[in-house]
Amino acid sequence: MPLLGIIGIVFGIISLICWIMVIVKIFQEGSIGLGIVAIICPLFAFIYGWVKVNEYGINNIMLVWTLCIVVNLGVRVGLATMMRGH
Q1: Which residue among 5, 11, 49, 72 is least crowded, i.e. fewest CB within 10 A of its CB?
Q2: Quick check: 16 and 66 in contact, CB under 8 A?
Q3: Residue 24 and residue 82: Cα distance in Å, rounded?
Q4: Which of 49, 24, 19 is nearest to 35 (CA)?
């Protein structure tokens, strides 16, 4: 497995952890319905996390999650480019 693949897996796992932490925070704040939606739709959890970043105090989680998404997109582009060359 190329190094880019390993990097993608690591950042994917970190992203998954951030998603779970945001879901837990939504439930802790008493938003049961929104928590269920966040479980079903990670994009909703991501957007809602940024909307409530200051209220929930999850700035670091959201920054890490955003970084993971950006890195994963770069990794996917890099892997696609490598595959196209072979």
Answers
A1: 5
A2: no
A3: 38
A4: 24
CA distance 82 to 5: 11
- Report yes or no: 68 and 18 within 8 Å, Cβ to Cβ: yes
- Rounded CA separation 66/54 (Å): 16
Q: Indicate the length of the chain as a whole number.
A: 86
Q: Give the global pTM.
A: 0.87
How confident is the model over 41-86, as pLDDT tens digits? 999 999 999 999 999 999 999 999 999 999 999 988 888 887 786 6
The 3 state secondary structure assigned to 23-73 is HHHHHHCCCHHHHHHHHHCHHHHHHHHHHCHHHHCCHHHHHHHHHHHHHHH
